[in-house]
Write a structure and sequence with these properties.
Cytochrome Bc1 Complex, Chain D, domain 2; 3-stranded antiparallel β-sheet; two-stranded antiparallel sheet; mainly alpha; single chain; 17 helices
Length: 424
Amino acid sequence: MKKTLLFAAGVIGALLILTVLVAWPREEKIASSGPAATAPSAENIARGAYLAKAGDCMACHTVRGGAPYAGGRTIDTPFGRLVAPNITADRATGIGAWSADDFWRALHNGKSRDGRLLYPAFPYTSYTKITRADADALYAFMQTVPAQHAPNQEHGLRFPYNQQIMLAGWRLLYFKPGVYTPIQNQSAQWNRGAYLVEGPGHCVACHSSRNPLGASDKGLSGGMIHTLGWYAPSLTSDQEAGLGSWDVAEISALLKTGVSQRATVFGPMAEVVQKSLQHLTDDDVAAMAVYLKALPAQPGAPLDVASGPQVERVIELGKKLYETHCIDCHGGDGKGMAPHYPPLAGNRALTMRESVNPVRIVLNGGFAPATAGNPRPYGMPPYGQVLNDAEVAAVVTYLRASWGNKAPPVTPSEVNRYRSVPLD
């Protein structure tokens, strides 16, 4: 009996390995249009630099205070630590020796120059939608990035996630290479927005939940960014950041400047606006706004709002603290003074199921990005050193239960969980 079980296990294991090996190549080849497409011409370099901004490539491939694109920034995941590589033009430690085909292979197929499978923390699951022409322009730009001799560091992934065969199995389940295909019954503007959001912008990398194997789960339906300790809201649910009721101009203003009459961006999104979106053309930002506004609305699950004497006592404490620390800017009616002081009444950032974002803003302060369209943004001071966990919980609970807002109360333990989380 024991021999039979061992034999069966061996057969199953061999079949699994064979399946993975068959799927391993899984590569789509699209040739460049010719040497002119990757030549270091002013036009190609400018186009590539623009795409690097659209993809916010520097965000992951540059450590704070370090040389641009020289790598070294760490990304902590549930599977271990990843370290972004050097992608400067250094031939020994960067990508200076790569060909345009090598670059395309990484971007589109998720494979390195040597054939090694890349981890999807590098969002090739989105970048695969980038056209070959755009990839070639991006390559031309990257070859002009000043070379930095910075050897790549080893990842710190746990077994078995550090095995290439496991990554091959993941790709078999969750990755299919393919350039974005325009939807024929949609406008050119909508398709341009879809291309930017789904491809270079890789918005799904943050605004999506993840399954146990780390794959994006449900489109742009929102999810925790566990590597940063923030919640990226759903872009399809009107209970969160769904934009169906917004004007295109309002969405464009938020993406381009970080502020609008209806909301202000904070946390990781502030960095995205500052480092990436503000540098896009007005036409491209408007295209993204058109696409995001048109996303099919998904109903959110009803929130179970607690009540009772204990909750009322917490809300009363929160009201007193609000009147002491917050009322001068946000007003007794919670309407604020947009865009400088965001409205709190009807603010969906406060009424989502996840309370982490308002908790972190009260603890650490809220800072909109400095952009060309909003060069001197107003900021909210941190109160983490002024209020204890119970007091922060009371203030956020009050905000979530006032001026028509209806969301569950926040507990001191929830506040304490994020008190020591790094800002980035």
